[in-house]
């Protein structure tokens, strides 16, 4: 098992390095001079040259790349081309907001998907199982931003129970923080919960047809008892893999949800940087999102190895 984990770590490092090269080169392919964008069209050639030296864009690309990646390893993302401020503290603050949103949404999505998906599989011939399957299919078809707008219309505009937008740090007012967290979390979790419910239902249905579950039931266990005691661990194996993929999808979906609810997370920061053509901020935020996605994939691979005894045996 240790060898397999080391292999996964090596894959993580190589993938991250390749991602830094791709993101760096892609940002350089975008037309426009950062110094010209920062100073405007009326800037003098002398001032442009001075600004290029300040930004470091006058140096060879290979030097710029190693300076940037070296800064990433130290947690130094550089200075914004537009605001001329340090990017690192802002990324750290925005990352905390996005992680709170994504982790809370995934917890809610799993709390919805595991019991509903299991029940839909066990009762797949009953009306309740059919209704859960149909509801999850409908949830998969609804985009996250549409779910967010509907939730705002119902609970904020119509009923007035919850605020429609904004963000309050938990250290300032925890009650208001929770009230403002509910709608964006539900908007993210509803779609992901529907997707995970489908996967849980499929995994449990497949496990229920296995011989060892029929043997357990022949020994006197109920259908649900045999499933809980002998089947859920095996059903968890594909669900763990899908959950890792869906967390990555949550991170991407949070970009839109943060904009809808005016939440100061990484997604809002990325969209603002794109609008201002702040290329260094864009590539830094993108690499943070890539790193989070790769870390999640690494955790999923490790959990997969721990949960599945066949993986440990092959390792």
From TrEMBL:
Q: Name the domain of life.
A: Bacteria
Q: Does the keyword Membrane apply?
A: yes
Molecular function GO labels: dipeptide transmembrane transporter activity
Where in or outside the cell is it found? Answer: Cell membrane
What residue ranges are annotated as transmembrane?
12-30, 95-117, 138-161, 181-200, 239-262, 282-307
**ABC transmembrane type-1 domain spans which residues?**
95-300
* Stored Pfam families: BPD_transp_1, BPD_transp_1_N
Q: Which of UniProt's keywords are assigned here?
A: Cell membrane, Membrane, Transmembrane, Transmembrane helix, Transport
Membrane topology reported for the UniProt record: Multi-pass membrane protein
Record-level GO cellular component terms: plasma membrane
PANTHER family reported in the protein's UniProt record? DIPEPTIDE TRANSPORT SYSTEM PERMEASE PROTEIN DPPB-RELATED (PTHR43163)
Provide the family line: Belongs to the binding-protein-dependent transport system permease family.
Q: What is this protein called?
A: Peptide/nickel transport system permease protein
* Organism phylogeny: Bacteria, Bacillati, Actinomycetota, Actinomycetes, Micrococcales
């Amino acid at each position: 098992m240790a060898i397999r984990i080391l292999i996964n770590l090596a894959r993580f490092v190589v993938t991250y390095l390749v991602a830094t090269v791709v993101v760096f080169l892609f940002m350089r392919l975008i037309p426009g001079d950062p110094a010209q964008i920062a100073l405007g069209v009326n800037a003098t050639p002398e001032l442009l040259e001075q600004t290029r030296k300040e930004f470091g864009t006058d140096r060879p690309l290979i030097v710029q790349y190693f300076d940037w990646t070296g800064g990433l390893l130290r947690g130094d993302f550089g200075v914004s081309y537009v605001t001329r401020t340090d990017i690192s503290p802002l990324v750290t603050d925005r990352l905390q907001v996005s992680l709170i949103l994504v982790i809370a949404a995934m917890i809610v999505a799993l709390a919805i998907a595991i019991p509903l998906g299991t029940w839909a599989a066990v009762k797949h011939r009953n009306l309740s199982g059919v209704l859960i399957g149909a509801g999850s299919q409908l949830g998969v078809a609804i985009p996250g931003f549409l779910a967010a707008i509907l939730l705002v219309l119902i609970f904020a505009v119509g009923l007035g129970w919850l605020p429609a937008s904004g963000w309050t740090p938990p250290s300032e007012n925890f009650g208001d923080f929770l009230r403002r967290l509910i709608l964006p979390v539900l908007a993210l979790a509803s779609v992901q919960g529907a997707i995970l419910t489908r996967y849980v239902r499929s995994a449990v249905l497949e496990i229920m047809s296995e011989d060892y579950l029929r043997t357990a039931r022949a020994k006197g266990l109920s259908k649900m008892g045999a499933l809980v005691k002998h089947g859920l661990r095996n059903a968890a194996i594909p669900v763990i893999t899908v959950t890792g993929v869906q967390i990555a999808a949550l991170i991407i979906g949070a970009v839109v949800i943060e904009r809808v609810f005016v939440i100061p997370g990484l997604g809002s920061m990325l969209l603002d940087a794109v609008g201002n053509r702040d290329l260094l901020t864009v590539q830094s935020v993108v690499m943070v999102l890539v790193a989070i996605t790769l870390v999640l994939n690494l955790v999923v691979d490790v959990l997969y190895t721990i949960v599945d005894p066949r993986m440990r045996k092959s390792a």
